[in-house]
Amino acid sequence: MSVSKQVIVGSMWSSGARILTAFFRIGLLLILSRLLEPEDFGLFQVVSMVFLYMVTLSNLGLGSAIVQKKDLLPEHIHTVFWAYAFLGFTGSLLLFFLAPLIAEFFKQENLTVAVRVIAFLPLTHTLSAVSRSLLLKELKIKQLSIIETLSYLLGYIPVTLILAFAGFGYWSLIAGFVIQSLFTALMSFRAFPFRPAFVFSFQKFKELFRFGFFDTLNIFAAMTANQADTFFIGRLMGPVSLGLYNRAYNLMAANVNLFSDFIDRIFFAGFSQKQDSDESLLRAFYKADFLIMAFMLPLGFYCFANAKDLIIVLLGEKWLPAAIAFQILSLGLVFRLNYKISYSIIRAKGNMESTLWIWIANIGLTVILMFSLKNHGIEGIALALLISMIYRYFHLLFSLKREIKSFFIWKVLKNNSQLYALGGLFLFINFWGRNFLLTEKPILVLASSLLIMLLVFSPLFFNPVVKEFFESISFKFKPLPEEKL
Fold this sequence. Notes:
The chain is an all-alpha fold. The chain has helices at 3-35, 38-59, 62-68, 74-105, 111-117, 121-127, 129-137, 141-165, 170-191, 202-236, 238-273, 278-305, 307-314, 323-330, 333-348, 352-373, 377-403, 409-415, 417-433, 442-456, 464-472.
């Protein structure tokens, strides 16, 4: 099967799994938001953030280096496994002993025990990372999608629900997270039963380390830029405000997550296969940027126009203080996702140094904005994050221009001009049409707004790129012709 066909079929599996998971996430969101308090979500947000940081540091980007490297040898794979074993063990020890300092930083004593409970997860994550990287390198997206979906459906959901109904508060979220992580590790081993040999080559490690090191620095910087809001709110405003903000952010990110993993991993793997063909990369970029914009911009505007009603229906009235923050974040829906396309191309071409400086600049801007707007509460933090997301998107476009001389930013804006116009028309009709509604029931308001959105954006179904996309994902998985990709 060609790379193009593998990417398209992989995208189908990944998207299908994400859509299925999204339905369950929405259902779980409806239930947990009514069973748990904002403080529970705030504490869990800190725990999950700490885990992500330690896993990133423990990985050193070696898994991405496996995917990116063309001439991969068995010695590379065995070397990475033993490096991961050491790094994962070290990361778990650090997390265990640093737990009191983390709790002190966020001024929450109960974080010490919570962080120590998940301290062993960096080790289990890194030990299974080679299997996941090899699956991704071979573009076995179907297996990866099944693993992630089943671990969520069979691991996280039942454990979290049972404990939440039993009144365990944030421990229900932590327990579900632990079981899901263990399910993922075990199923990854089963899908790709890698058996390491007692081989470690410093030369092979050095070959992978350069890309992996800069990839880790980029991921670490990206996480810091994306998690700055958690640091600020958790440290300065407490777990209740963090919980409110977290629900607003996750409600926005629920739409992003349908495509985020697809872009991060499948696009990166596919682009890595074609890293020497600028023409192929640009064709893929223009189409992907428009398609994702076509899906996400209507959703972002819909959430912006109906923030209060969505909060009431999905979360409940006790979460209304998060409505304005959610409304602000919804405007960044497109920028939160589309920057990943240009970033994936630059990663695939191996130029990680340039993107690192972009992330550093983005962190600086984010920190300055959040310090300036922190007195405005979670709404000020949301506005700071929105501005930084817009900056990141355009900065990466300029970086892609430096990487590929034949790339034109004006062409991106021109391709998306129809979407901007339709988005403005939708907002005008939606706000104007509310004056004629005979009811203020949130569910009916949301339904009428959804109908308006579908009617306004219906011309997109006749767009050649959108038509070509839907033709390529028919039931028989008929791919786009190779030359069109």
